[in-house]
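Subject: sequence -> structure tokens, single chain

Hey, anyone have a minute? Need the predicted structure for the following. Not urgent.
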Amino acid sequence: MKGKRGYLLVGIILAIAAALMAINMGGSSFTGNIIRNPDAFIVDIKELSGEISHSIDAKSGESFRVSFACDQGKLQLIIKAEDGETICDVNNEIYLPDGFVVNINRDCSYEFLLSGRNAKGSLIIVKNE
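Reply:
Had a minute. Here:
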């Protein structure tokens, strides 16, 4: 009886692990175009449910010009310094028709994390030296 229980327990654990992996892998989708280069992150979003990211190195005194538009669904942009400090956190509930500038006060790599839920829109980030 012990052997059958052990096999049953292993089978249940494997089934749970497979289900968790399927949930994690199936939760993200993106349709559109992305341009990632050392000085820019440009995203034309036809549909985004999940996250996409890019990192850009910048020096003190430089800035990022950000244009952020959401035509449908929900979008959020978080900009973090390499030590994890959040520099900027905006979402589509904040109306910024002319975009905005993020001034850089230290040399490091900055991560741009764009997340969406049933979202359509665009993001343009360009580093100004």
